[in-house]
């Protein structure tokens, strides 16, 4: 779960806190590398060792010479001035080689003016508010981005991962933040709440109910929303005939009220919900959020999966239908 806290060894923390590439054997690169890929990685990171102090994030990336695609994308998205602002910002910066790993034509498509919103979404997913150094990163399991969604942080052996990207250099200081170099482009969720639920395959009753209540379109709008989503199994626990009765047109308002009781305005992640203890729903009433015997609960329902990011909010999966 993204909401859980990683407990990291001092050796892992010390490894990431270094601002040099992680060493492996005699090649000086991270992980098990071939001679050619090791040489490529060393070339990418070598230019990062002699930055001038006082450069902002954008100029630092330009001067490095290994972020040409990233810089071009930032310009196309009109984010240059924002990333030259006071900040501070933390940028997980993919190298040119990282962008080259994307399917053929992806970068060219993203750079088209008609895809500017999508490009902005991708780029802001690489930016975390504040100056988050490597020593801070290793204490986290996730971090909120300017996109609104969270990135997942994990240590796997001697590798530090941001989603599916490996950090290959850390703590490049700039005048308005810090850069950590990553070896893959990380991508936010592009599916909205309804699409994400449909893709999961375990929320068919919830989706049918949302359509019957006239809420499916609403839950595909910008939001953001937080949905406590009962599974099909959760709906099956209701008394026999309850779902069929609720789906009748004459019961649409009652169904809508029940569904709205599962929706909270805003993007509320698990740890924030626990801290708040209560959350006001779209139905008007509040739900209780607590941890009982190590189990996260919303009212009496157990949360069986947390922090499923979507393009317009976040889903937490629950094992019972909530009733206002």
Tell me what you see in this structure.
- The chain is α+β, with helices and mostly antiparallel strands and 324 residues long.
- The chain has two domains: 10-182, FAS1 domain (Roll); 193-318, FAS1 domain, CATH 2.30.180.
- The protein has 15 helices and 14 strands.
- It has helices at 10-17, 35-46, 57-64, 68-76, 80-83, 96-100, 106-110, 116-124, 134-137, 193-200, 204-212, 232-236, 242-246, 252-260, 270-276, and strands at residues 89-94, 127-129, 142-144, 150-156, 159-162, 165-174, 177-182, 225-230, 263-265, 278-280, 286-292, 295-298, 301-310, 313-318.
- The strands form two sheets. It has a seven-stranded mixed beta sheet. Strands 9-8-14-13-12-11-10 form a seven-stranded mixed beta sheet.
- Helix 11 (204-212) packs across helix 14 (252-260).
- The model is unreliable at 1-47 (pLDDT under 50).
Tell me how many strands there are. 14
Named at the architecture level, the CATH assignment of the largest domain is Roll
Mean pLDDT: 85
Query: Strand percentage, roughly?
Result: 15-25%
N-to-C CA distance: 28 Å
Architecture blueprint of SSEs:
Layout lengths: L9 H8 L17 H12 L10 H8 L3 H9 L3 H4 L5 E6 L1 H5 L5 H5 L5 H9 L2 E3 L4 H4 L4 E3 L5 E7 L2 E4 L2 E10 L2 E6 L10 H8 L3 H9 L12 E6 L1 H5 L5 H5 L5 H9 L2 E3 L4 H7 L1 E3 L5 E7 L2 E4 L2 E10 L2 E6 L6
Helix pairs in contact: 11-14
Protein traits:
seven-stranded mixed sheet; alpha+beta; disordered N terminus; elongated; 24% strand; 2 domains; FAS1 domain; 14 strands; 324 residues
């Amino acid at each position: 779960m993204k909401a859980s806290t990683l407990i990291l060894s001092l050796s892992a923390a010390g490894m990431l806190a270094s601002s040099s590439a992680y060493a492996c054997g005699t090649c000086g690169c991270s992980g098990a590398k071939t001679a050619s890929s090791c040489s490529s990685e060393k070339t990418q990171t070598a230019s990062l060792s002699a930055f001038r102090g006082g450069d902002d994030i954008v100029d630092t990336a330009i001067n490095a010479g290994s972020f040409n695609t990233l810089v071009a994308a930032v310009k196309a998205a009109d984010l240059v001035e924002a990333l030259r602002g006071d900040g501070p910002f933390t940028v997980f910066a993919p190298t040119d080689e990282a962008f080259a790993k994307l399917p053929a034509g992806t970068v060219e498509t993203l750079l088209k003016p008609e895809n500017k919103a999508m490009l902005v979404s991708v780029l802001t997913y690489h930016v975390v508010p504040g100056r988050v150094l490597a020593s801070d990163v290793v204490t986290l399991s996730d971090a909120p981005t300017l996109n609104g969604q969270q990135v997942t942080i994990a240590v796997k052996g001697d590798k530090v991962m941001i989603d599916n990207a490996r950090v290959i250099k850390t703590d490049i200081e700039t005048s308005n933040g810090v850069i950590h170099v990553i070896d893959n482009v990380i991508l936010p969720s592009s599916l909205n709440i309804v699409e994400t639920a449909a893709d999961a395959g375990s929320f068919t009753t919830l989706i049918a109910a949302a359509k019957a209540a006239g809420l499916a379109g609403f839950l595909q709008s910008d939001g953001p929303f937080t949905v406590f989503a009962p599974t099909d199994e959760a709906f099956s626990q209701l008394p026999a005939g309850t779902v069929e009765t609720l789906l009748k047109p004459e019961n649409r308002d009652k169904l809508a009220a029940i569904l709205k009781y599962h929706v909270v305005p805003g993007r509320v992640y698990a740890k924030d919900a626990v801290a708040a203890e209560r959350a006001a729903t779209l139905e008007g009433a509040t739900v209780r959020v607590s941890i009982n015997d190590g189990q996260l609960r919303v009212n009496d329902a157990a949360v069986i999966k947390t922090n499923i990011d979507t393009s317009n909010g976040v889903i937490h999966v629950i094992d019972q239908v909530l009733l206002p």
